[in-house]
């Protein structure tokens, strides 16, 4: 009995031992933007939301300037009545300028910081990150809006799968380069996903526009889905919803410098702008799509090789197939790699109309 | 030689040795073994785990042989080999061994809490609270400690399921090609795996307390097999989830894997995971204190209770002086080395010594 009393006593005694953070007394940062300033410093933009009495949500943006990433938070904290915390961070926006200069330091912070979840989305903005975050999007608060925008597009497989974990995974993986989605602010309350930025090491070197994203995704994501339209002849167009796509790399047995990317797409026709959609037409559409995918993907791959970037992770793939793989030699080999694209499309349904 | 007989009511059922061994093995090292082993053998390191597991079966067989021959614990074995006085001297270092073991376990856990949840957690107060709990359990006797080890293994077992959330982000192709590393690298990583496997030595101390010890053998082997497979599967899951460079950057890969998990009621799962880890740590420390104080009792002929107090006071005194990551990782690597030397080198030596002594005595 005595012991029990002691335990209960200690329970009360020790509950005051550590710093508490009560959810009503903190500001949760929902989105962060980083920009390069003219001098060596960096501009940080922190987006939080305020819940008003009438149940509406307003955005609050704080900016600060410092040379260390962590100092940015400390400086921004001086403008806020409640301490800023990073535990609920969902979106990180990298300014265009900074992307070109390199994001290595920022990745280090994200790797090191305990409080940041691995589901955080990284994006590159067109123009400055500060401006992108200052916009007023949606009714649920800008931070949540941006997070949902990215999350839904990744779920629908419009965007290649990306989050902080996958970014760090690829960044520290030898034989693979990173890529991030791009955000474009159209007006003060409109924003759109405008493509994918390709990195070499930690610097942006190339951009894939949104029209080519479908092909890019076929190359980088193991599984995917998405919409695509094929022009046929002059006035006929067919829109195809791919439910399932899959890619596979195969190294030729005879010639190790030849790799085949086998892409399989299963889909359904959703829209067709001509009179009748017969079996023959469906076959034609399949053929057209196959040709289109093969030529567009090949263009992309040729471009990767020219820029010496490897977002598909071919280096990592070759490593997993060869014992004692030499990355130094690979750097030279990659440019001369003979990549072949073979696409196979199967249209399973044509909707509920004949 | 008079071995004090232990009454049946204080003994444990043979199958409970399964929980005792497993809960002692899992704890220290389970948070970061993936990084340590991958440093040397890359993503072939899971082979090292299986190799160490296989070795441990032989060691376990040796341990049972030792304690069966002398019909007692390791102190009896020492006295059997080296006589009464020298036997006790030889047993003395094991008090320190278990002291360092529980210190390393507890301090590593406190470090995790400090880094992950409460940066300003006081080491002293937490240790005091934890030690009072341990004292309460250890005073209940071995049966209570083993009971706690059962709960310490079964209750947090659900944590394994939470790693299923990592699978969508995993690429199992990354462990290919198999056997890309030399045998030397594999052995090196096997050595570094030893910290996570420490714990089977408790058989040497618990043996007199097992009812029908013959029957406990299969459970002990099953425990090692389960731990080995658990570690191997878990290592492969980690390797699939992280890339090699990324894994080397992560101090606690196991905790980093929880970062992806987000549930509707909790934004960050690590908080629940770490709180549950307390249950995994508890039997580790309790066993160490129980064994340590029992050794004190046998060697110095004082009451076991006094040994427990001694252990707890020493803990409180030392633990507040270990502050930085460097010191903690030094403590862990020291523990790994001592543990390796004890299990892989000392036990075979003792086994041979006991066999020789047996032959000599028969003549």
UniProtKB/TrEMBL annotation, chain A:
The protein, known as: Spore gernimation protein
Keyword Chaperone found: no
GO cellular component, one term: membrane
Native organism: Peribacillus loiseleuriae
Membrane topology category: Lipid-anchor
InterPro entries xref list: GerAC_N, Spore_GerAC-like, Spore_GerAC-like_C, Spore_GerAC_C_sf
Presence of the UniProt keyword Metal-binding in the record: no
Signal peptide extent: 1-20
Family indicated by similarity: Belongs to the GerABKC lipoprotein family.
Domain Spore germination protein N-terminal as annotated: residue spans: 20-184
Chain ranges of the Spore germination GerAC-like C-terminal domain: 194-351
Annotated localization: Membrane
Keyword terms: Germination, Lipoprotein, Membrane, Palmitate, Signal
Annotated Pfam families: Spore_GerAC, Spore_GerAC_N
Higher taxonomy: Bacteria, Bacillati, Bacillota, Bacilli, Bacillales
GO biological process, alphabetically ordered: spore germination
From TrEMBL, chain B:
Subcellular location: Membrane
InterPro entries in UniProt: Spore_GerAB
Major localisation: membrane
A Pfam family per the record: Spore_permease
Segments crossing the lipid bilayer: 12-31, 43-64, 85-104, 116-139, 146-169, 189-210, 222-242, 274-296, 308-324, 336-357
A Gene Ontology term for the protein's cellular component: membrane
UniProt key word Repressor: no
Keyword Transport: yes
Membrane topology category: Multi-pass membrane protein
Top-level taxon in the UniProt lineage: Bacteria
Keywords from the UniProt entry: Germination, Membrane, Transmembrane, Transmembrane helix, Transport
Family to which the UniProt record says this protein belongs: Belongs to the amino acid-polyamine-organocation (APC) superfamily. Spore germination protein (SGP) (TC 2.A.3.9) family.
Protein name listed in UniProt: Spore gernimation protein GerB
Organism: Peribacillus loiseleuriae
């Amino acid at each position: 009995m005595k012991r029990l009393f002691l335990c209960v006593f200690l329970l009360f005694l020790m509950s005051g031992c550590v710093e508490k953070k009560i959810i009503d007394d903190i500001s949760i940062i929902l989105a962060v933007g980083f920009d390069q300033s003219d001098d060596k410093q960096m501009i940080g933009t922190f987006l939080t939301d305020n819940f008003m009495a009438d149940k509406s949500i307003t955005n609050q943006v704080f900016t600060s300037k410092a040379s260390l990433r962590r100092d940015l938070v400390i400086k921004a904290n001086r403008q806020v009545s409640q301490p800023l915390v990073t535990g609920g961070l969902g979106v990180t926006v990298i300014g265009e300028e900074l992307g070109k200069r390199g994001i290595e330091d920022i990745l280090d912070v994200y790797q090191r910081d305990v409080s940041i979840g691995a589901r955080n989305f990284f994006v590159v903005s067109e123009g400055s990150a500060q401006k992108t975050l200052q916009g007023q999007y949606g009714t649920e608060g800008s931070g949540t809006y941006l997070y949902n925008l990215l999350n839904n597009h990744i779920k629908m497989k419009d965007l290649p799968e990306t989050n902080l974990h996958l970014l760090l995974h690829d960044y520290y993986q030898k034989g693979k380069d990173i890529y991030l989605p791009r955000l474009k602010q159209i007006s003060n309350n409109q924003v759109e996903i405008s493509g994918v930025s390709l990195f070499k090491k930690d610097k942006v070197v190339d951009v894939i526009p949104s029209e080519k994203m479908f092909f890019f995704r076929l190359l980088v994501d193991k599984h995917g889905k998405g919409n695509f339209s094929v022009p046929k002849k002059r006035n006929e167009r067919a829109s195809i919803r791919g439910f399932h796509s899959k890619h596979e790399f195969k190294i030729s047995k005879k010639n190790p410098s030849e790799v085949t990317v086998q892409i399989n797409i299963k889909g359904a026709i959703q829209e067709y702008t001509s009179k009748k959609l017969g079996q023959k037409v469906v076959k034609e559409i399949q053929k057209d799509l196959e040709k289109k995918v093969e030529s567009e993907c090949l263009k992309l791959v040729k471009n990767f090789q020219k820029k010496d970037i490897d977002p598909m992770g071919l280096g990592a793939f070759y490593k997993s197939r060869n014992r004692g793989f030499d990355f130094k030699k690979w750097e030279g080999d990659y440019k001369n790699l003979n990549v072949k694209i073979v696409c196979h499309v199967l249209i399973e349904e044509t909707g509920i109309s004949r | 030689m008079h071995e004090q007989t232990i009454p049946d009511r204080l003994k444990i059922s043979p199958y409970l040795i399964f929980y005792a061994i497993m809960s002692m093995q899992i704890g220290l090292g389970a948070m970061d073994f993936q990084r340590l082993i991958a440093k040397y053998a890359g993503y072939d390191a899971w082979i090292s785990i299986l190799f160490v597991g296989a070795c441990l079966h032989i060691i376990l067989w040796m341990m049972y042989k030792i304690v069966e021959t002398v019909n007692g614990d390791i102190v009896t074995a020492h006295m059997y080999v080296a006589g009464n006085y020298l036997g006790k001297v030889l047993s003395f270092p094991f008090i320190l061994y278990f002291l360092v073991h529980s210190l390393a376990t507890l301090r590593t856990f406190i470090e995790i809490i400090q880094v992950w949840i409460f940066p300003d957690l006081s080491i002293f107060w937490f240790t005091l609270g934890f030690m009072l709990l341990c004292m309460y359990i250890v005073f209940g006797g071995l049966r209570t400690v083993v009971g706690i080890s059962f709960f310490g293994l079964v209750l947090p077992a659900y944590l394994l399921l939470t790693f299923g959330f990592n699978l969508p982000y995993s690429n199992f192709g990354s462990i290919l090609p198999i056997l890309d590393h030399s045998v030397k690298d594999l052995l090196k990583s096997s050595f570094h795996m030893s910290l996570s496997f420490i714990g089977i030595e408790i058989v040497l101390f618990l043996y007199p307390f097992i009812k029908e010890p013959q029957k406990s053998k299969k459970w002990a082997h099953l425990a090692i097999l389960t731990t080995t497979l658990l570690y191997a599967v878990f290592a492969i899951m980690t390797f699939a989830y992280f890339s090699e460079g990324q894994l080397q950057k992560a101090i606690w890969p196991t905790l980093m894997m929880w970062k992806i998990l987000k549930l509707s009621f909790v934004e960050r799962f690590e908080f629940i995971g770490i709180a549950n880890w307390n249950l995994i740590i508890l039997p580790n420390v309790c066993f160490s204190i129980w064994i340590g104080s029992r050794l004190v009792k046998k060697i110095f002929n004082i009451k076991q209770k006094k040994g427990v107090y001694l252990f707890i006071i020493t803990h409180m005194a030392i633990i507040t002086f270990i502050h930085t990551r460097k010191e903690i990782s030094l403590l862990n690597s020291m523990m790994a080395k001592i543990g390796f030397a004890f299990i892989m080198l000392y036990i075979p030596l003792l086994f041979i010594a006991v066999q020789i002594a047996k032959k000599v005595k028969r003549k």
